[in-house]
Each structure stands twice: as C-alpha cells, then as structure tokens.
Amino acid sequence: MSVIETLEIAGSETWEASRLESALARLKEMHIQLRSLRTTIPRMIRPLTSPHSSPEELYNDFANAAGSAAKEVQAFRYYMEDEASRSVLQQADTSRKEMPDGINAWRVTDHPDWLDRDERHVEVDGKGVDVQIDAVNIEAEQDTGKILEQFREAHPTMKVNFEGDTNSITLYLPPPARIHFHVTQQPSASGKSSYLVSTKESTHLHKAILRGIETRPMPNNLSYLLELLASYTNIKSMPCIKCSKLLDTKPQFATIRRKNETSSVAGTGETSWKAYHEGCV
Q1: What is the pTM of this model?
Q2: CA 218, 221, 225 angle in degrees (round to 5)?
Q3: For labelling alongside 171, which of 9, 29, 84, 228 has CA 20 to 30 A away?
Q4: pLDDT in tens, 47-102
Q5: CA torsion 157→162→167→168, rounded to 10°?
Q6: Other beta carbons within 10 Å of 221
C-alpha cells in the first residue's frame, strides 16, 4: 500500500489529490528537517573542541553556535506543531488503525530524490507559503545539484561535494588558500533555508574569515555563498580596498568580502569582490 493510499483511506473523509500531494510535501519537509537535527549537537559543541585565544572568544563562538542550534530546533517544533502538520499525522494514524493490513515498511533509500526539496506551495497556519519565495535573496528550495554543477564549471580547480544525508556541502580552496569549508543547510518552517559555514581549520585567520562570512547580505542564497567562499582563494594576496594594505595592525589579512558588479564595454555584467579589513568596514 502506497503512502497516498494510506492517507486516502481514512474513515468518512476522502482527501483530494491536491491535498494528498500537499500532505506528502509536508511529511517530506518534516523528514528533511528531522534528519538535519542529527548534526545539531555536534555543530553546537564544535567551538568547545577548537582552540581560542581568550575565554571571551570561546564564549562568543559557543553562544553563536548554541543560538543557531536553538533556532533550528525551534523551526522544527513550529513545523511539527502547526495545525496542518497535526492534521496530516492524524489522518495517517486514523488510516493505519482502520486499514492495518498491507502497509509495507518504507525506507528513504527506496526513493533517492526524497531528500531533494521541490518547489511547492504549502499551508502553514492557514496561510499559503511558497517554498521558493525569492529566487534571488532566499533560494529556500533550490536545486542544490544544479547550483553545484554550475559552480564546478566556473571553478574547476576547487573540490566541492554534496553530502545528502546531512544536507551539507564541503568545499576545498586549493593553494595558496588551503581552506576547507563546510556548509550546512538549516531549513525553517517558513521555507527560508539559511546556511551555516564552518572550517576544518581553527586559526585566528579562519575565525576572522567566518566572522566575515556571517556579515554577508544574502544569508539564504546558496549561489551567492559559494561564490563568496571562492573569493577567499586570494586571501593572502588581496589588499584592503580602503586602506590599500595587505595586513592591518593586528596583523590580519582583509577577511571581509563585498560583491562588486560592473558593466563592461560590451554591455555584459562583470562580477568581482572587494576585500576589507574588519576595522575598515
């Protein structure tokens, strides 16, 4: 018996096809968010396993990680406790009680695309919510595979991989940068996915880079984020656009990046990145 048949046979109430599809989309989102929570605690305690220059720096890093973890859990609770979610779960429970025979075990491996988000319209608190609200600034339900493919074509020397089980991306910048980035998708009930970035390395430089990444203007845009990470390839050779110096007084490289788009003579758009020291922005 399929999932649709399980939901459809529920006492006197028969759900229409559109409602069944909406219910499946909601169950799928629940599952994706729940699987993402498996890495919440490891990501939260990661600052405790990294060296810090001072207790204040340790506190700030851990506080930020704990805050992100709390938001992720809160988003999942909101989605689970939503009236529409409870209705779907109740419908499935009623169906199982009335038709207990012929329900086969289901595994996510039976449907490889189950963890790929679709562009859908669901109901949250009685209001319609488009999963992909703003293609430029939100990209909540992006085609991650297509974005990564385009990124690989634009940056063939960089190693980038997608880990479907944890909805995370690893990106390695080759020498002279030698930076291992780890990007974790953090979905929310509203459909506005955000992205948490960490590094394998834990030097003062890498922590400063992460602080710079946190200030990016479009936290929900994966394409923008990947290009931003790629811009750190020249972190050790690109001077600050404001003071024209490679190192500041700390001394530290220019770890803040701002996108700069200009028009060429041919009329096509050209994109570059400006670098700033933390004290120059």
Answers
A1: 0.51
A2: 85
A3: 29
A4: 888 888 888 888 888 888 888 888 888 878 877 887 888 888 888 888 888 888 88
A5: -30
A6: 24
